[in-house]
């Protein structure tokens, strides 16, 4: 059994990691931390866990924790992650970091969108953990930068088009929509039930969302050229799910049928990407609770634009499920182990 | 008192008309029709009305109805509307038609997107009822084609940019999101609570939604040139509200501040359009139950694109509220009479 | 015009008062207060109000406020209300207090369920503002204790049975359910969207909810004898609405038809109580946004028990709507003025 | 591998069976039926299944189906089930019937609440499949009457009290609340999103719900005496979950602590019943997607009444999860096999 610590277990990605790993045949979660709830059983904070995972939440002491486990998942806010990840690495632990701290290859870009990076020397060894694009490197990594939720949906949605040089890289517009769990579990008026329910809004409009540099970094690698995208996130009154509607202009004439074939070829054999048949479009309801990314592709004959729609569960493929997928790869386990559960509907 | 008939009163726009007109000081709803519920009190179908509007739903007999009232609101499906509107007009009634039947000036375009038009000879006298653009013509009309919900949000969102020739008309992409009441009240599995709740999806992707010709017709008039847009509607798990996120490319350099000034000037004095200050964006939650259209404008400095976000309540400004606004204008009443209620929050 | 201050305007009952009074023909809201948002326009906190009520939120200075207005609505937490109400009264203002501070006639009971009362000398002059039971006293009062939301639904639901001595007063069990706006607008993890959505729970089980003494006080007056009830509140994942399911044992044999007749007689002429026909039961969806209380009565032939189901909008008849109804009575205005709007559906 | 057919797979309990059994290590679902969707892949009806279970839905031909499988789950409406179950039994198959057809021991009672029973001769061999009460009989059965959702929550909630003769059996009042998936997947206006959302209502009030005889049958067996209960179901605007609030009068004085001890002893070792500590109460959010039944017990010191609150996921412990638990027992597998997944939160 692989012993695992979940650092920052009182948030939604933390409890989702526990849920997923509880059913993983080769893993035992043996340590969970939370500053604000230290000393309480994690099942007190998340009663879904009662009777199955009643570990006491600990304060985060990196050295002590590293001594007890094989793998560490850091589900902390950015900056808090890079304060402790170096210690885990120094003690020889594999780390899957769910924060943004090791996703950007360039410390200056990180500095511009977040703040000054504390450990830029670790960036070269961090692997951006999107298995569909970087499976082999993940297998050899000891530090995985687990992708953001929006980036996962966008990069998987666009990879075949950019890799295949089908579209003009300057034409990309992403209109993305997220369920409310993406806003986290901190007590803010804006996230109260009555403030969110029965409303729909855009936020961070105008190219200011922090997931943008991460998306552009990965898309540029796929395209082989720098690019700039328009990205507008929205908040949906539901718990889980991200749907990205992605507009782009093809460099030549293409049909939807050709594109579906392209996507099917690109994602052939991928266990968690489902390319939908022509004419079928995804819904977040159909990936809820699962590690799938569903992708539909359409060509608007009137305007010539390509419209890609991709859907994930932001807490699973967009966070904790993908983190476990990365852990499986790092640990030499079958990639789908513990992850082949179906979505929950309704 | 103006006597009013609501033809097709067992749908959501029908009950919303009754709700609004109940508080209108110069109107009495005296006739309501429904084929499927004929013979039952409308308050049986919609118990919100109990004790305040207990009219018996009648079968639709145009001549009989026309004999009793001054104004007719037709809240019927397309095709059903054009089967009865001519009779109402012939008998000298003012008609506000909430269907799509008289919105398109060109019967051929109607034929292409819907079916063969039955009364193309009436199209020239029908006025597309967007008061912000066509107030004077509405005052003189006897047949108002009440705009669709998506079109209202998009046209109001883009009018200042197109009229001011600020953007390239070929660059317009509309990513629109609607609450579920837009799907109507017929019994379909797709609209069941458990199918809609906790899910978000696109539909009608690829330039096939029937509101497209209506939007393009009006935008072309504003731009002074034909244009083609990309339009993607989405379904939000909430009852009411439309939010349209609209992307376009300016012809020259502009700032958000300049655009807000442009919008404020364009909509100066408009009672139901609220141009939001720079940096503020609308939410459907803030227009729910009201006749407002809230508009925010942003410039993405990184890509140069303009992003307009507009929000309405699809049943009020997007349907029944706008219909009453049109009726007020047609009948020589103050435009805001009975419509100056605030949105309901939460 | 009656000039009105809303003290504590940044909560949900505050904005609901503004919404209702905006459409009231004889009232002008001229002062709104909020400690946490003082200095900001109230329309900044609640953008539904933008362009219609852009008053600046003030700090609460009772003397200054009293100098500007005729009537004060205090929408403060308990204890905060009784700290300022005496000043308003001393300065001759009519006060409608939406807190619990003046609802209980007995300061000792208040002390037991809340804390030591600061101004017990005012209790005799406070009138418990349920117009259906105490219309004449309200007309002469200058201090109205506006009833709690749960109590409104329960007292109106049981009044005919207790007044008519139809049931055993010791047999009453109230199973009540409330929408989330009843939990207020403060930033707590428990009230976050993701914590409330898609869940249903009981809280305050076992006779500990603070609305109990208020309910028992009023029911005892109706019954002419002290009584003790079982009361269990629940939280529903929706914004608005209270539904109380009330069980009791009749002292003799009765039929549902007889009970409906009893209720119709008891509430004859009441503008805001709708007694439903036999076999029809209320839903919170049918009173949402309105000042109605809908009541259905059933007899369970198998067990002999009477089941009353009553529904209100907790923010309207359960708070701000009833407060305006009381103000109308106090000020000699028609009781329904500004309140005769229909519920919003869907 | 045990081969399994799911008869009636296009409803919510059908897809939930597929979801659960997909992760069951000893089962292969090899046949799924649906009359209305015969010929389509089940993953077309429920896209969550795409790529994992793409079986073609067949028409229901009992003999043919029985020839291919070892165990049959019948997820049909009542009456439809008893039309085919005899054939499956005759062909030696184990049957778990999720309908009501074999739950009532007495065909006359069935006749009174449903209609004339077609195969009363099978009733003696049917075992009411509540493992916590009847584990040994289930192991030997070949026909399991899988309990209803409400009955599961109520019987588990009351069993310790009745078995322990702690309460007066005549005093039981059950106020139950269910998510909307309990209403099934047929296209009815009443179940549309906009009709259910943002509303809460009671239905089937007055002792008329068909789950009553089933509850009373099992409670009477526990109490050793016939009994009659008051039962009021309500509809909650959420997908999944049942919460039952159960009132009763103890025969003598008891404390909550004593009752918690009683419940803990009664359910000791039970894998799927979680007795909550004194002062803790269940929420449907904490059992969503899991096979748990969470139970909290409170004594109201003021009235002397006992209040039990129990929560389940209506589609799991209330239907498909319990069905798999029964199958495990029938087939000699570990009872928790394939069922030890955690609930999904949020």
Automatic annotation (TrEMBL), chains A, B, C, D:
Catalyzes the NADPH-dependent reduction of N-acetyl-5-glutamyl phosphate to yield N-acetyl-L-glutamate 5-semialdehyde. The active site is at 149. Residues 3-141 form the Semialdehyde dehydrogenase NAD-binding domain. It comes from Geomonas paludis. InterPro entries: AGPR, AGPR_AS, AGPR_dimerisation_dom, AGPR_type-1, NAD(P)-bd_dom_sf, Semialdehyde_DH_NAD-bd. It is found in: Cytoplasm. Pathway: Amino-acid biosynthesis; L-arginine biosynthesis; N(2)-acetyl-L-ornithine from L-glutamate: step 3/4. Belongs to the NAGSA dehydrogenase family. Type 1 subfamily. It catalyses: N-acetyl-L-glutamate 5-semialdehyde + phosphate + NADP(+) = N-acetyl-L-glutamyl 5-phosphate + NADPH + H(+). Coiled coil: none annotated. The keyword NADP applies. SMART domains: Semialdhyde_dh. GO terms for biological process: L-arginine biosynthetic process. Keywords: Amino-acid biosynthesis, Arginine biosynthesis, Cytoplasm, NADP, Oxidoreductase. GO terms for molecular function: N-acetyl-gamma-glutamyl-phosphate reductase activity; NAD binding; NADP+ binding. It comes from the Bacteria. Its EC number is 1.2.1.38. One of its GO terms (cellular component) is cytoplasm. It is an enzyme of class 1 (oxidoreductase). This is N-acetyl-gamma-glutamyl-phosphate reductase.
């Amino acid at each position: 059994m692989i012993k695992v610590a979940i650092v920052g277990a009182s948030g939604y990605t933390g409890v989702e990691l526990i849920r997923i790993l509880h059913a993983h045949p080769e893993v035992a979660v043996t340590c969970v931390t939370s500053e604000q709830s230290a000393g309480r059983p994690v099942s007190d904070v998340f009663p879904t866990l009662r009777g199955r995972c009643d570990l006491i939440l600990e304060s985060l002491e990196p050295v002590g924790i590293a001594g007890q486990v094989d793998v560490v998942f850091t589900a902390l806010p950015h900056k808090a992650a890079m304060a402790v990840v170096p210690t885990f690495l120094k003690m020889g632990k594999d780390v899957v970091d769910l924060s943004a701290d090791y996703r950007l290859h360039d410390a200056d870009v990180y500095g511009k969108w977040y703040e000054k990076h504390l450990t830029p020397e670790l960036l070269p060894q961090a692997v951006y953990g999107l298995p569909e694009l970087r499976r082999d490197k993940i297998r050899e990594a000891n530090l995985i930068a687990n992708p953001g939720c929006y980036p996962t949906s966008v990069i998987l949605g666009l990879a075949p088009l950019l890799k295949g040089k089908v579209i003009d890289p300057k034409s990309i517009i992403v209109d993305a929509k997220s369920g409310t769990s993406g806003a986290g579990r901190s007590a803010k008026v804006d996230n109260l039930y009555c403030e969110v329910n029965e409303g729909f809004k855009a936020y961070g409009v105008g190219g200011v969302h922090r997931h943008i540099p991460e998306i552009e970094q990965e898309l540029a690698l796929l395209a082989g050229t720098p690019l700039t995208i328009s990205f507008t996130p929205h908040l949906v009154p539901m718990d889980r799910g991200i749907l990205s509607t992605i507009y782009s202009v093809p460099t030549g004439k293409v049909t939807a049928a050709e594109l579906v074939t392209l996507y099917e070829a690109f994602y052939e054999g991928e266990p968690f990407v489902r390319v939908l048949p022509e004419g079928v479009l995804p819904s977040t309801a159909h990936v809820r609770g699962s590690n799938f990314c569903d992708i539909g592709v359409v060509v608007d004959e009137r305007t010539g634009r390509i419209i890609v729609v991709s859907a994930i569960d932001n807490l699973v493929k967009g966070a904790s499920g993908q983190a476990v997928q990365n852990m499986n790869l790092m640990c030499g386990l079958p990639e789908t182990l513990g992850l082949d559960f179906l979505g929950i509907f309704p």
